[in-house]
Structures are given as C-alpha cells and as structure tokens.
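Example protein was shown:

_____
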Amino acid sequence: MATAEQLKALIRSYAHGDDSHFLSVATQIAAHAAKAGKEQLAEDLRRLVEDAKKARISAPHRVVPVPIAQPTGDLAGLVAASYPKIRLADMVLSDGIRQRLERVVIEDRQSTLLLSHSLAPRRKLLLIGPPGCGKSMTAAAIAGELHLPLLSVQFHALITKYMGETAAKLHQIFEAMTKTKGVYLFDEFDAIGAQRGTGNDVGEMRRVLNSFLLFLEQDQSESIIIAATNLVGVLDDALFRRFDDVIPYQPPTAGMSRELICNRLAMFEIAGLGWKRVLQAAGGHSHAEVVKACEDAAKQAVLNERRIIHTNDLVQAFNARDKRLP
C-alpha cells in the first residue's frame, strides 16, 4: 500500500491544486501495490489514473497560474528561472540522504520559530558525487517542496576573461538572493571552486573563489544555496566549512534501482520480470542511466503495441547504454 510519504504527498498536491503531481504519486502507489502482490488494486489504480489523464485532456480543467520569477537586466543572462513540480517523494534516495534533505525543508518552513531562538535554518548545501545520481534533481525537489523558484546559475555567462567582471557578476547573484527568495543552484560548482595554489591555478579564478567564499559567508538572505559537483577532489578545503551540510551521493543500490524501475514503468506490466538478470544489468549505472534504460524499454514495448515489459527489454537497454561509454 501507499507509504506515509506518498500519502502526505497526495494531500499536499491536492491542497495546492497540483493535478500532475497528484497523478504521479498515484502512479507510484500503484507500483508499490503491484510490488506487494496486490495486482488487482494496482490495475484498478492504473486504470483510474489513465481515466483521469484522459478526462483532463478532453474536458476543461482548472489552470492554476504560477508567478514565475523572471530575472531582468544584467541578471537575466546569469540565472535561468523555473518552478519545478517534482517533490522529494518522487525521488529514490537512501534513507540517510532523504532525512537530511527533509530536515532542510522542515527548517525552512519553521524558520521564523528557529530565528526567534537565535537559530539559523540550514540554507547552504554542498552536494557531491558522480554524474546522474540526483544532485541537480535534489535542488529542483527542494524548490518544489517549498514552492520557490529554482534559479540555476549559468556559468557560461558568469565566467569571463576580464579581470574583476566575474566577481562583479557573482555579487549580482548574491544580491538577488536577498531580493528574490529561491533555490539558487551552482551546478558543476568545480568551475569556480577548485583549489587555490594548484599548478594550473589562474589568478583571476583564485580571486573569483575568494569572492565566492566571502559572499557565501556574509550571505544573510532567506534563499537556499545549493552547490553541486562531480569533482569533489578538486574543491578548495576552505569551501566545506562555509556550507551548513555536505551531502555525498552514490550510484543506486540494487534495491534503489529496483524501486526506480518500478516507479518509471508503473504504467506497464512488469510482474514477470527476471529481477536477478535486470538488476545485474543495472549494476554500476547511475540513477539517470537507470531511468533512461527504462524509457528505452518502454518505447520498445509501445512500438511493439504491448503493455508488458520483458526482461530482455531492460537487459538490452542497459547493455546498449554500456556500449555508449568510452
């Protein structure tokens, strides 16, 4: 049956009129029911979800306007704004990481209470780990949970060859944090966070890092700052103590891969999968790679006009992704 997190997600999505998220969670519940052997319940839920989706397409429905925060002026090219609908309940995470992220959400929601006791909510996170393991998606999920804009820093526009210009642009971003509360994502953070004093150190980038450290330490906004990197080994040691939490991500375990597959293929029949072969093929793949393999298998099934996903569909999809690696 539904987990406690899924039930809470259902209620939250209903309260905010988020029909897409409501149906997404319902699909996850159907997948859990199938996994628990409640095939009839799972089939009934899938049918209800499909009927609801068709009804939304064929009949007029309520549209909830969302006021997107659009950067203007010089800031427009430095950050990209969006309002994600994804939630933490949509992600497959280890219990430890989930608890730490939920704590960030809870502390932000209770920030007034914490501040009244001279306690600051945690707002500055450093996410580290290999590509495709959910770091960027985490930023989107936190923004979705808190109904805040996700403002992704565009490093191609931030970093320039002119002395002092990058630091000045970085200062604009930190100033924006005080004016527009949001989740500010510095993805591929190693672009400015590399160690000072290395052999390939560039004086200007050293000054940019020094500026970032100063801005981060002085920041008193209500925004949430998330830096993410695949290359933790190159980060400057001074960075780590400036963040409230450093969260390491790893490739999914076999159990997490199975949950990812069940969630992504919830609308298909997967009861007959040979899980031993599937999980063996999935081993070593990131979260993103598992999802992509599921999508490839689903496309194969749809093109062959069937709702059943065969073991070979997934095994071949994973093997095909292996061949793309250098």
Q: What stands out?
A: The first strand starts at residue 79 and ends at 82. The two ends are 42 Å apart (CA to CA). Confidence is low (pLDDT under 50) at residues 59-68. The first helix runs from residue 4 to 15.
